[in-house]
């Protein structure tokens, strides 16, 4: 890759060219008047080019980085036009006969080049004006961008973002945010023209002298919003990751006030959703910590003892597990409501044992705490919704994030939220649990570490999943809860009937989707990969699962497929049962087999095996000799 020329080099070429044009024009023998006019235009250009040479110096004087994109683009165009001017004036070197030998210049040639130079003059004038930060943003269009105003607006706002006054930077970020929101092309232009690095910079140290001042908060919100509007596809997320955006984003999330955390958490959620690499990068920066901390704000989990080195003591967890009926919300008389020994305590003094608080929790420093206590409940609710959504998107398909959430007090916190919150916050927390469970389904280590049924956080989560399933208020909640339990099927001991009963009940849910999810979950209890499949199969029969299953078999294709599979496993595990015989399971299987196999050829063997097995155990039924060729 060729190294990029420095800005000085880029500018020196047209300055040199301008001098040559000027000299040649003044020495011309033919078309003297026209040449002189060109020389005047070129002199103006030359002046402005020399002014541009001072820009890097001006920027370095104020310790700023110069925004170079528009300079490079416009100056390259100016050089091209100067080149044409040079060719033209050289043709005028000789007069009379000699001139004829070379070529003839016409008035039209001069007019054309003169117009080009006039455009360049307009471009340079505009260019210098956008680096004049005392005069506001110049929204007039330079000739080079007359067909594409967006380009020049992005240039002007980005220049302001780099080098303007704090207030102007915030406005520039808001303008970019609004341009980015309009369409994909604008987003691409902003990225291509270098808008992302100064947005990250604004986000990072909006006003480092006065962090959390009003002006700083506004700037950070504007920057986070702009970035959020820009990163709507994987390429652009990747660009932010490659620009080292992730550590900045996590740092801001950890250190800033609630109002800033909201858009930043939304940004995290969007990036994590669109790019697995971003998920990994966020994991490396431990983003789950500030997210869980904010989620736990003002709850009994918000106790410094819980934050100690990111771990919880077994003692405190056991205490907590017994406190499930405690109201979650403190009433803001202090920073937390309950000490882990259950005694009420107020004030933010963290007491003896917690002086070793991990540095990652500096977020909980008293200043921020004070500020946070002044926020309205609505704002606090909003940040929790956003943080929970970020945790959801981070955990989806990500072992490392799922592990990090469960390693701290994350699971317990999620359980509490599912217990006491409602609407979007409750749903986001439930979705997070579901995604973590889905990851744990295929990862023995995580499953054992996080979901051992005897561990208090796992127990708290399980209680809530079961409650949501049994409450049955809303299928949007029931479905993820059922899915989560299904994913954890391999963690339950043989006689864990607390789980099977509620799931079996849902097989009969009026909502076919809920009932089908229950069948899918139960399938994971009775499939051969489940060590306890025999006991679980018996439990399903004991809870009278067969009749609703038979009904579900006739609901729709999707429901039919999953209930057939569940029925097959039951047949293979407990084929000799009265329940199956009474329900005429063999007939039902026979009836459904053909259409299920037509759509899912992979199920053929399982179904044939199950039918053979049922035939074996049901002497009453004449051996149909399930003709496999019929399938
Ligand atoms: C904006 O740029 C134009 C040239 O395109 C210039 O004439 C005008 O003076 C500039 N306005 C400001 C406020 O600098
Ligand atoms: C601001 O722009 C105006 C043109 O709109 C110009 O005349 C003036 O010189 C500029 N002011 C400064 C400080 O550059
Ligand atoms: C994230 O947490 C781990 C474990 O506590 C720690 O070793 C690591 O340094 C942290 N990373 C960052 C970037 O803070
Ligand atoms: C808040 O605390 C006061 C006493 O400090 C108490 O009377 C009140 O019931 C509490 N409110 C809630 C919602 O817990
Ligand atoms: C996890 O395992 C289940 C069955 O054990 C399988 O159906 C699923 O596709 C697996 N998911 C991933 C992401 O590997």
From TrEMBL:
Keywords: Repeat
Listed PROSITE patterns: ARM_REPEAT
Family matches, as InterPro entries: Adaptor_Cbl_N_dom_sf, ARM-like, ARM-type_fold, Armadillo, DUF7792
Region (Disordered): 325-380
Annotated Basic and acidic residues bias: 368-380
Domain of life: Eukaryota
Biased composition (Gly residues): 344-354
Residue windows of the ARM repeats: 194-245
DUF7792 domain sequence ranges: 8-132
Compositionally skewed regions (Polar residues) per UniProt: 325-339, 356-367
Pfam families attached to this UniProt entry: Arm, DUF7792
GO BP terms, alphabetized: cell surface receptor signaling pathway
Protein name per the record: DUF7792 domain-containing protein
Organism encoding this protein: Quercus lobata (Valley oak)
Lineage of the species this protein comes from: Eukaryota, Viridiplantae, Streptophyta, Embryophyta, Tracheophyta
Gene name of this polypeptide: LOC115965348
């Amino acid at each position: 890759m060729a190294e990029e020329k420095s800005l000085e080099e880029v500018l020196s070429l047209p300055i040199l060219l301008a001098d040559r044009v000027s000299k040649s024009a003044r020495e011309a023998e033919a078309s003297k008047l026209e040449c002189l006019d060109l020389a005047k235009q070129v002199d103006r250009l030359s002046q402005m080019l020399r002014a541009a040479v001072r820009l890097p110096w001006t920027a370095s004087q104020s310790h700023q980085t110069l925004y170079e994109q528009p300079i490079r683009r416009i100056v390259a165009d100016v050089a091209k036009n100067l080149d044409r001017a040079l060719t033209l004036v050289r043709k005028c070197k000789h007069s009379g006969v000699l001139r004829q030998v070379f070529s003839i210049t016409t008035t039209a040639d001069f007019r054309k080049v003169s117009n080009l130079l006039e455009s360049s003059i307009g471009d340079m004038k505009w260019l210098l004006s956008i680096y004049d930060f005392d005069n506001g943003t110049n929204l007039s269009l330079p000739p080079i961008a007359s067909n594409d105003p967006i380009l020049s607006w992005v240039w002007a706002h980005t220049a302001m973002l780099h080098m303007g006054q704090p207030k102007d930077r915030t406005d520039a970020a808001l303008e970019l945010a609004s341009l980015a929101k309009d369409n994909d092309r604008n987003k691409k232009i902003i990225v291509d023209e270098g808008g992302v690095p100064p947005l990250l910079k604004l986000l990072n140290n909006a006003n480092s002298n006065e962090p959390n001042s009003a002006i700083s908060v506004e700037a950070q919100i504007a920057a986070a919003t702009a970035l959020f509007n820009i990163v709507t596809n994987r390429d652009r997320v990747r660009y932010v990751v490659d620009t080292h955006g992730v550590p900045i984003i996590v740092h801001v999330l950890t250190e800033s006030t609630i109002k800033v955390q909201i858009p930043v958490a939304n940004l995290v959620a969007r990036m994590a959703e669109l790019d697995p690499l971003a998920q990994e990068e966020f994991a490396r920066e431990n983003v789950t910590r500030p997210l869980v901390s904010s989620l736990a704000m003002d709850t009994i989990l918000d106790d410094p003892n819980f934050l100690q080195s990111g771990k919880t003591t077994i003692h405190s967890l056991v205490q907590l597990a017994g406190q499930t009926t405690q109201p979650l919300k403190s009433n803001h008389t202090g920073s937390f409501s309950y000490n882990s020994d259950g005694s009420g305590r107020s004030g933010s003094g963290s007491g003896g044992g917690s002086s070793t608080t991990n540095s990652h929790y500096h977020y909980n420093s008293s200043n921020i705490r004070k500020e946070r206590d002044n926020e309205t409940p609505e704002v606090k609710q909003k940040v929790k919704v956003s943080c929970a959504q970020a945790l959801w998107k981070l955990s989806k398909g990500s072992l490392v994030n799922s592990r990090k959430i469960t390693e701290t007090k994350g699971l317990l916190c999620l359980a509490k939220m599912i217990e006491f919150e409602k609407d979007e916050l409750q749903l986001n927390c439930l979705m997070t649990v579901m995604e973590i469970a889905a990851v744990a389904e295929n990862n023995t280590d995580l499953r054992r570490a996080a979901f051992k049924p005897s561990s208090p956080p796992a127990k708290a989560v399980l209680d809530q999943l079961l409650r949501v399933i049994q409450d049955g208020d809303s299928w949007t909640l029931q479905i993820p809860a059922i899915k989560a339990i299904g994913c954890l099927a391999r963690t339950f001991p043989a006689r864990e009937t607390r789980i099977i009963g509620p799931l079996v009940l849902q097989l009969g849910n009026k909502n076919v989707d809920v009932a089908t999810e229950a069948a899918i979950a139960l399938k994971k209890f009775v499939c051969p990969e489940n060590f306890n499949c025999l006991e679980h199969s018996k439990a399903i029969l004991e809870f009278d699962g067969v009749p609703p299953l038979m009904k579900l078999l006739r609901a729709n294709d999707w429901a039919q497929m999953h209930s057939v599979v569940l029925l097959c496993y039951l047949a293979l595990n407990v084929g000799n049962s009265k329940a199956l015989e009474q329900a005429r399971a063999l007939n039902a299987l026979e009836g459904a087999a053909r259409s299920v196999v037509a759509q899912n050829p992979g199920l053929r063997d399982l179904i044939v095996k199950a039918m053979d097995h049922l035939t074996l155990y049901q002497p009453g039924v004449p051996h149909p000799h399930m003709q496999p060729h019929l399938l």
